[in-house]
Design goal:
The protein is mainly alpha-helical and 116 residues long. The model has no long low-confidence stretch (mean pLDDT 79). It has 6 helices and no strands.
């Protein structure tokens, strides 16, 4: 991913940032507001690392996937589903409904949205 994705959707990345850097603080992230230099400085501060090491760590983090709640479009979603195929047993279609959870068509449309 690119820093522009992070900057444009800054608050959507909080969970991913906190997962990577558990010592980060949401109030501090609010202050940073997507500023890359400020984020590098902040990561260096909380990890007690040199700014160049923090920059490398952030660069490595950026090489990962975009969080699903940042990019929600059919092309990205279908790509993610297809990538999940490696976890689906052989012979099962990763795009098919999972019978274990039932099918919405099996329920009468009586206006009751709660499933029994």
């Amino acid at each position: 991913m690119k820093w522009s994705h992070v900057q444009e959707n800054w608050s959507a990345f909080y969970e991913a940032i906190l997962e990577k850097w558990p010592d980060a603080d949401e109030a501090e992230l609010d202050e940073i507001d997507g500023d890359q230099r400020a984020f590098v400085t902040y990561v260096a501060q909380i990890t007690e690392a040199e700014p160049s090491d923090a920059r490398d760590e952030i660069r490595e983090w950026l090489a990962g996937e975009l969080p699903a709640d940042v990019v929600m479009d059919p092309m990205h979603d279908n790509h993610s589903i297809n990538l999940s195929a490696k976890y689906v047993p052989e012979g099962e279609d990763e795009l098919a409904d999972d019978a274990r959870f039932g099918d919405d068509d099996d329920y009468p449309d009586d206006g009751d949205t709660e499933r029994r």
